[in-house]
């Protein structure tokens, strides 16, 4: 009979590893993991698991995948290990393999919502994705899941259903600014401005720095001639996202509304510099230059806009105004004709005007 | 208590709600909020600070007791302390609390700072199949390879995991197995687990000095409630994941709630008479801190948010934090009716929150890793913090300190008052605008005219280039060639390198020749005509030749290069090389 050395408890320091991991103290965490793996001769599943998580955070995905795989050898019945294997496979671009592993993990644990959303980018058909997400929602209500499902409906072109989903989601998460903003923008697209403004306003109450909501709400204020209030909002956005072309366009048009034309041109030119191929900015620049009676410049901006967007009647109309003022009656007429051709209904009255 | 270092005096101005009582940057404490407690250890109304020190993380673990600013006593601990609580275990006078230190599978109870009792967690159930296999091995009925196969099949299927003995056996090399089995086979198989968190629960009275039970969470995903006197297990509950943090309220005999944060990122709420969790809160990221404020649960998440929930798991609010949370504690001042949450952040700040409103900020010289608020010495409002670097900070809340109850959320953000950076326009710009207004028609016409001229000139040059094959890429589909030329040297001798490339996908080009055309009064070339070898697609062929400049006047001219196909007079490619002036002769 020999003295038997006591075998150590493998999970002895798991709590310490976890504590350092969630505090994002990865260096200490790695040191403890190393020690723990030495003590247990590489048998501590949790230590390997966290090491793999850290490696993945560091971008070493292949290594992390190998470690997760060794975790699932140590504990083959854990769906969590399989989930992580699938996630690493997904990050490596091996989508088919990832789906297979996710499905296998789902067999072990039917009631796990986490597995559903990551599969979405993998599903070939939006239909499959929709099904998976609906299942995930039945298991647990999560803001992210709603967001994804709404996006899927939008991809399918089903705006009504998307609005429905976002409405339910907003009821569940009244403080989720992302959901509020998305719903507000959808209402705006559908022309329900009152509701849109309500939701965007709510989003701004919870997060006054929300860039998307500021831009959308600001543009609505502008439509109502509330230029000063809109400018106040834009100042916040200009601080957080100083290089946004739509923002500078809107600021420019605010100045235009306030009859500060030079400032308007400055802002629009900045927007144009940031996004040279945006025809809306060029359209606005043309409009402001026409107002300033700078017809030669207006002509250039408008013709550039037409080159980028040749199917818009209003552009030809503005171009015609510029050409009329440049004493080029022939081309002006041609431009008017083009405008009428593109949008006959709107410009019926126009014939009378220039005849 | 006058030993306030200089650096802290500066921050004292900003956090004027607090008096800096003590700061020792080299106290050498490695601990967490779960391992510190304030307790009246001697029953004299003078509260001591008890710290379970993890030492180096591997050894030198100590149970330290501080009184005032000095270390009162030190006991060596055998292993890393996981949690530490002070609790009253009996009705004896004087009413001095005991200290329970959870460490591995044990709870060490100290009374009057002397070891008093050691509690060991019950062993876990061992897989019966595993037991059978090992008993067969003990009786030498199976050899090591069979043992290995059988254990592997158990591991793959069984609900109850294998013991450490079997797991280690499966990792061994075949030649080591025999001795390992002989060494261990006589011993009974055991599966042991460890404690991950510990708390206290009043037995049957609400008084502050009532007897309390110990509540422990284990790595085996169980929660045990222990009797304070006999240390028997009063109740056992199980969780879906490993518990990490816990908060306990109520009384064991009446009704209680145990709020437990788990390693899977969920929070479970256990109640009396229910062996399974009653409610579940699913978080989006790991909970780092968990405290209870009255009837609500406040969780600090790894994703830099602070979230409030009801005890039934309904979300109330979210506050966004500027940095990751390191630890949390409750700031409770019953005498003033004030309760708040202390959130220590990784950016060396401690934030004080009332619901979702930030009411105060404390700057610290280092990242705080453990925090605790309560009565220390004879002072009720004391804040104890230890830092990542091992420092110990003691602050006292001023009696005059008032926390603003204002709602911090609404109000315009600061950026709204920052002026827009609109680009300024110069006077020149304004002048040009005026000019355009007056002469718009003339400017437009001049521009249109020049534009037409430019287009004409461009078209002419293009046609010319096409006619003389002047482009750097051949227009012929049969011989897709690319060429560029490099001139090296200062003169009078120049080296001329032609890089010719066949850009076809797979077809080689043969029977090509190169010829040069130049003014023979100015230049001389050794070979003005040569053949090009077969051109393999994709490869770059550098062809060198030498040119000598004859003029001494520093004149330079153009040398024309033609790539020709045998039997055709029209060149495939033409290049004009602008020769540099010969500096070598000019110097002479």
UniProtKB/TrEMBL annotation, chain A:
<dbReference type="Pfam" id="PF00515">
    <property type="entry name" value="TPR_1"/>
</dbReference>
<feature type="repeat" description="TPR">
    <location>
        <begin position="313"/>
        <end position="346"/>
    </location>
</feature>
<protein>
    <recommendedName>
        <fullName>Bardet-Biedl syndrome 4</fullName>
    </recommendedName>
</protein>
<dbReference type="GO" id="GO:0032402">
    <property type="term" value="P:melanosome transport"/>
</dbReference>
<feature type="repeat" description="TPR">
    <location>
        <begin position="143"/>
        <end position="176"/>
    </location>
</feature>
<dbReference type="GO" id="GO:0008593">
    <property type="term" value="P:regulation of Notch signaling pathway"/>
</dbReference>
<dbReference type="GO" id="GO:0061512">
    <property type="term" value="P:protein localization to cilium"/>
</dbReference>
<feature type="repeat" description="TPR">
    <location>
        <begin position="245"/>
        <end position="278"/>
    </location>
</feature>
<dbReference type="GO" id="GO:0035845">
    <property type="term" value="P:photoreceptor cell outer segment organization"/>
</dbReference>
<dbReference type="GO" id="GO:0070121">
    <property type="term" value="P:Kupffer's vesicle development"/>
</dbReference>
<dbReference type="InterPro" id="IPR011990">
    <property type="entry name" value="TPR-like_helical_dom_sf"/>
</dbReference>
<dbReference type="GO" id="GO:0001947">
    <property type="term" value="P:heart looping"/>
</dbReference>
<comment type="similarity">
    <text>Belongs to the BBS4 family.</text>
</comment>
<keyword id="KW-0802">TPR repeat</keyword>
<feature type="repeat" description="TPR">
    <location>
        <begin position="177"/>
        <end position="210"/>
    </location>
</feature>
<dbReference type="InterPro" id="IPR019734">
    <property type="entry name" value="TPR_rpt"/>
</dbReference>
<dbReference type="GO" id="GO:0036064">
    <property type="term" value="C:ciliary basal body"/>
</dbReference>
<dbReference type="GO" id="GO:0060271">
    <property type="term" value="P:cilium assembly"/>
</dbReference>
<keyword id="KW-0677">Repeat</keyword>
<dbReference type="GO" id="GO:0061469">
    <property type="term" value="P:regulation of type B pancreatic cell proliferation"/>
</dbReference>
<dbReference type="Pfam" id="PF13181">
    <property type="entry name" value="TPR_8"/>
</dbReference>
<dbReference type="GO" id="GO:0090245">
    <property type="term" value="P:axis elongation involved in somitogenesis"/>
</dbReference>
UniProtKB/TrEMBL annotation, chain B:
<keyword id="KW-0844">Vision</keyword>
<dbReference type="GO" id="GO:0060170">
    <property type="term" value="C:ciliary membrane"/>
</dbReference>
<keyword id="KW-0969">Cilium</keyword>
<keyword id="KW-0472">Membrane</keyword>
<dbReference type="InterPro" id="IPR056419">
    <property type="entry name" value="GAE_BBS1"/>
</dbReference>
<keyword id="KW-0007">Acetylation</keyword>
<keyword id="KW-0206">Cytoskeleton</keyword>
<feature type="domain" description="Bardet-Biedl syndrome 1 N-terminal">
    <location>
        <begin position="18"/>
        <end position="271"/>
    </location>
</feature>
<protein>
    <recommendedName>
        <fullName>BBSome complex member BBS1</fullName>
    </recommendedName>
</protein>
<dbReference type="GO" id="GO:0005113">
    <property type="term" value="F:patched binding"/>
</dbReference>
<dbReference type="GO" id="GO:0001895">
    <property type="term" value="P:retina homeostasis"/>
</dbReference>
<dbReference type="GO" id="GO:0005930">
    <property type="term" value="C:axoneme"/>
</dbReference>
<keyword id="KW-0966">Cell projection</keyword>
<dbReference type="GO" id="GO:1905515">
    <property type="term" value="P:non-motile cilium assembly"/>
</dbReference>
<keyword id="KW-1003">Cell membrane</keyword>
<dbReference type="GO" id="GO:0034451">
    <property type="term" value="C:centriolar satellite"/>
</dbReference>
<dbReference type="GO" id="GO:0005119">
    <property type="term" value="F:smoothened binding"/>
</dbReference>
<keyword id="KW-0813">Transport</keyword>
<dbReference type="GO" id="GO:0034464">
    <property type="term" value="C:BBSome"/>
</dbReference>
<keyword id="KW-0716">Sensory transduction</keyword>
<dbReference type="InterPro" id="IPR028784">
    <property type="entry name" value="BBS1"/>
</dbReference>
<dbReference type="InterPro" id="IPR032728">
    <property type="entry name" value="BBS1_N"/>
</dbReference>
């Amino acid at each position: 009979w020999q003295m038997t050395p006591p075998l150590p408890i493998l999970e002895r320091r798991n709590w310490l590893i976890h504590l350092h991991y969630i505090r994002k103290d990865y260096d200490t965490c790695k040191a403890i993991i190393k020690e723990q793996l030495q003590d247990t001769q590489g048998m501590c599943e949790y230590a390997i698991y966290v090491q793999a998580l850290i490696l993945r955070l560091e971008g070493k995905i292949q290594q992390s995948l190998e470690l997760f795989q060794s975790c699932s050898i140590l504990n083959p019945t854990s769906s969590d290990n399989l989930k992580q294997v699938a996630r690493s496979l997904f990050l490596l671009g091996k989508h088919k393999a990832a789906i297979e592993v996710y499905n296998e993990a789902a067999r072990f644990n039917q009631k796990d919502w986490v597995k559903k959303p990551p599969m979405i980018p993998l599903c070939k058909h939006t239909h499959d994705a929709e099904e998976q997400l609906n299942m995930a929602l039945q298991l647990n209500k999560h803001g992210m899941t709603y967001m994804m499902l709404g996006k899927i409906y939008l991809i399918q072109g089903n705006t009504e259903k998307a609005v429905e989903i976002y409405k339910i989601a907003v009821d569940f998460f009244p403080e989720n600014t992302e959901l509020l903003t998305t719903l507000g923008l959808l209402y705006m697209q559908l022309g329900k401005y009152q509701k849109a403004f309500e939701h965007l306003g709510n989003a701004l109450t919870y997060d006054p720095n929300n860039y998307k909501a500021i831009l959308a709400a600001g543009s609505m204020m502008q439509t109502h001639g509330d230029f000063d209030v809109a400018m106040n909002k834009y100042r916040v956005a200009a601080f957080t996202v100083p290089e946004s072309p739509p923002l500078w366009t809107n600021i420019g048009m605010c100045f235009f509304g306030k009859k500060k034309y030079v400032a308007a041109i400055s802002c629009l030119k900045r927007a144009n510099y940031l996004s040279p191929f945006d025809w809306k900015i060029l359209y606005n620049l043309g409009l402001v230059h026409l107002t300033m009676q700078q017809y030669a410049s207006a002509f250039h901006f408008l013709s550039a806009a037409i080159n980028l967007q040749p199917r818009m009647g209003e552009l030809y109309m503005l171009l015609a105004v510029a050409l009329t003022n440049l004493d080029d009656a022939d081309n002006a007429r041609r431009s008017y004709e083009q405008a009428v051709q593109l949008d006959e209904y709107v410009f019926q009255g126009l014939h009378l005007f220039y005849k | 208590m006058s030993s306030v270092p200089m650096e802290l005096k500066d921050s004292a101005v900003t956090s004027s709600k607090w008096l800096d009582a003590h700061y020792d940057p080299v106290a050498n404490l490695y601990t967490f909020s779960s391992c510190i407690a304030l307790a009246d250890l001697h029953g004299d109304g003078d509260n001591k600070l008890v710290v379970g020190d993890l030492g180096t993380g591997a050894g030198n673990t100590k149970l330290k007791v501080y009184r005032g600013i000095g270390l009162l006593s030190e006991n060596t601990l055998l292993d890393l302390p996981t949690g530490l609580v002070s609790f009253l275990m009996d009705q004896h006078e004087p009413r001095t609390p005991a200290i329970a230190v959870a460490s591995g599978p044990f709870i060490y109870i100290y009374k009057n700072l002397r070891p008093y009792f050691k509690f060991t967690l019950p062993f876990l159930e061992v897989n019966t199949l595993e037991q059978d296999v090992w008993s067969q091995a003990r009786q030498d009925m199976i050899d090591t390879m069979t043992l290995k196969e059988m254990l592997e099949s158990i591991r793959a299927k069984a609900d109850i995991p294998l013991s450490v003995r079997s797991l280690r056996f499966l990792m061994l090399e075949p030649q080591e197995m025999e001795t390992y089995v002989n060494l261990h086979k006589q011993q009974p198989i055991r599966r042991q687990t460890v404690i991950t968190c510990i708390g206290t629960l009043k037995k049957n009275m609400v008084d502050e000095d009532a007897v309390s039970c110990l509540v422990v969470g284990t790595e085996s995903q169980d929660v045990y409630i222990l009797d304070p006197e006999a240390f028997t297990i009063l109740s056992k509950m199980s969780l879906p994941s490993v518990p990490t943090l816990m908060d306990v309220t109520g009384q064991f005999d009446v009704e209680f709630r145990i709020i437990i944060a788990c390693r899977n990122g969920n929070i479970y709420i256990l109640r009396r008479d229910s062996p399974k969790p009653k409610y579940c809160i699913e978080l989006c990221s790991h909970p780092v801190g968990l405290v209870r404020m009255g009837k609500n649960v406040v969780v600090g998440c790894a994703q830099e948010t602070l979230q409030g929930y009801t005890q039934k798991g309904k979300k109330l609010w979210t506050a966004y934090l500027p940095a990751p949370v390191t630890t949390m504690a409750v700031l409770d001042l019953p005498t003033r009716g004030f309760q708040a949450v202390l959130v220590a952040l990784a950016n060396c700040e401690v934030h004080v929150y009332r619901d979702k409103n930030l009411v105060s900020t404390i700057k610290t010289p280092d990242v705080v890793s453990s925090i605790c608020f309560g009565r220390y010495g004879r002072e009720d409002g004391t804040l104890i913090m230890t830092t990542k670097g091992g420092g110990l900070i003691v602050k006292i809340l001023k009696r005059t300190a008032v926390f603003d109850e204002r709602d911090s959320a609404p109000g315009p953000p600061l950026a709204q008052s920052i002026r827009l950076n609109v680009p300024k326009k110069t006077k020149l710009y304004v002048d040009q605008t005026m000019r355009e207004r007056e002469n718009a028609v003339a400017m437009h016409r001049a521009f249109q005219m020049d534009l037409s001229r430019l287009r004409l000139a461009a078209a002419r040059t293009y046609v010319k280039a096409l006619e003389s094959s002047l482009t750097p890429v051949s227009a012929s589909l049969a011989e897709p060639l690319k060429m560029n030329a490099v001139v090296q040297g200062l003169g009078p001798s120049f080296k001329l390198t032609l890089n010719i490339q066949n850009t076809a996908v797979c077809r080689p080009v043969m029977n090509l020749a190169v010829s040069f055309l130049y003014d023979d009064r100015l230049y001389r070339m050794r070979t003005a005509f040569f053949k090009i070898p077969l051109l393999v697609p994709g490869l770059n062929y550098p062809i060198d030749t030498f040119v000598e400049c004859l003029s001494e006047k520093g004149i330079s001219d153009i040398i024309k290069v033609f790539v020709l196909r045998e039997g055709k007079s029209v060149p495939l490619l033409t290049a004009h090389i602008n020769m540099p002036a010969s500096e070598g002769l000019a110097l002479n």
